[in-house]
Design goal:
By secondary structure, this protein is α+β, with helices and mostly antiparallel strands. The protein folds into 3 domains: 2-113, Roll (PH-domain like), CATH 2.30.29; 120-277, no CATH class; 283-421, PH-domain like. It has 9 helices and 30 strands.
């Protein structure tokens, strides 16, 4: 430990000798364990993507990224041994590391990057069918429309559901996909949308060219400019810290983004491609035209807010029943429909409609203004649901005066916890 004792932050020998004698950092199998603020954190070396030497406020760190950020203090006991081990394994640039680690001047320099093979290319032929969807390059090629639902995609047998490094459920395609003449490997879908009967909302992938630089951004940008001429200043920006471009066709939004080494971000060597479906699907929230209801039991609020929940994610979001719409004049209301056994909360155009027996609790969560503004959430908790659903968002304390009337109408006591401050 002699060398590190001399170079780290000018620490006195006495200060170092008073450090905790037990190892503060060690490796066990593929995992790196280290102490941070009294807690033991772990980093998966098998998933290491890049490494940096950092000096922040005269404090030296080894920064590792395994899809999570790890700021590992170079002053931890046993750091020298662990650093030598992982540097040998991955081939860190030790010259750069030692050049900066002992200085008191702030620094941020990459010492290693997990170089990735190129995962995209351009086909020679020109295609315009990207307006309609993309083609999976399976043995029997299959064209997937942008209107394909999550449920429908599972029946196509072109990929599988898995858990990614963030412990999130994703769908990964087993084959490359062709979007226009752009051929992409490793496209995936976040499988976290609560409704699976809606068209897929978001596709994404990190694209690498053979150099693992911003060439990936430049090549895709130039390709897009051929297919869809656009003003770069109106559709994005190209700055020293980041480059971003987006365009929309038939309510499908495509965007690419490349981020450089700056104070707030790290250069991963990849361009993030995002494909978002912003189309409206009115059939997903339209009530049956024969819908008959009992609307005699209702409470009209002196507020005018739209429902917060999105029908693409929440199947309880429907259009306002005609009978309710006629009398509200865009005011909010709560109503009980005994004919259909439901409780409804009406916004300006849409409503949240729940089976009465499923509603467990109604809550108002008030946040008073401080550094930020004040507001209040009108929320509903359903039985066996993990989270509450926010119905309306209004001014702080705005809904409190309706609590007694709601309890009388529904038989459900309204919960109003002590207000927090927006600090």
């Amino acid at each position: 430990m002699g060398f590190f004792r001399r170079i780290l932050s000018g620490k006195k020998e006495k200060e170092l000798s008073e450090e905790v004698p037990s190892p503060s950092i060690h490796i066990k199998g593929p995992l790196l364990f280290y102490d941070e603020r009294g807690e033991t954190e772990q980093e998966d070396l098998n998933n290491l993507q890049y490494a940096y030497v950092l000096v922040l406020g005269e404090n030296p760190y080894l920064f590792l990224f395994d899809h999570r950020q790890h700021f590992i203090s170079a002053q931890l006991n046993n750091f020298e041994v662990v650093y030598a081990s992982i540097s040998k394994r991955f081939g860190f640039d030790d010259a750069i590391f030692f050049q900066h680690i002992g200085r008191q001047k702030e620094a941020k320099v990459r010492i290693w990057l997990n170089k990735k093979a190129a995962n995209y290319s351009f086909l020679p032929d020109h295609y315009t069918d990207f307006m309609e969807g993309f083609e999976v390059q399976s043995p029997l090629k299959l064209f997937i429309s942008w209107d394909t639902t999550y449920e429908e995609l599972l029946t196509k047998q072109v990929g599988e559901l898995t858990i990614n490094d963030f412990e999130t459920s994703v769908f990964k395609f087993d084959y490359p996909i062709r979007m226009g003449r752009l051929l992409i490997n490793e496209l995936f879908i976040y499988w976290d949308n609560d409704r699976k009967d809606v068209p897929i909302q978001h596709y994404t992938v990190d694209l690498y060219d053979s150099t693992n630089t911003d060439r990936s951004y430049t090549e895709i940008r130039d390709e897009w400019l051929v297919d869809s001429p656009m003003n770069l200043d109106e559709n994005g920006y190209e700055r020293e810290d980041q480059k971003y471009l987006t365009f929309t066709f038939r309510e499908i939004s495509l965007s690419i983004c490349y981020t450089y080494d700056v104070e707030w971000a790290f250069d991963s060597g990849s361009t993030s491609l995002s494909i978002e479906n912003r189309r409206e699907y009115t059939d997903l929230y339209t009530l049956n035209e024969r819908y008959v209801m009992d609307s005699n039991r209702r409470l009209i609020f002196n507020t005018s807010y739209e429902i917060i929940e999105d029908y693409r994610k929440n199947r309880h979001v429907k259009e306002n029943p005609v009978k309710i719409n006629r009398s509200l004049q865009q005011r909010n209301s709560l109503w009980i429909d005994k004919i259909n056994g439901v409780m409804g909360f009406s916004g300006i155009e849409k409503a949240l409609i729940y089976p009465i027996e499923n509603v467990e609790k109604i809550s108002f969560y008030n946040t008073q203004p401080a550094k930020g503004g004040g507001y209040s959430y009108f929320s509903v908790h359903l039985k066996e649901a993990q989270f509450e659903e926010h119905v309306f968002c209004g001014e702080c304390f705005e809904f409190d005066s309706y609590a007694e009337a709601i309890a009388l109408l529904t038989g459900i006591k309204v919960y109003i916890p002590e207000a927090d401050f927006n600090c």
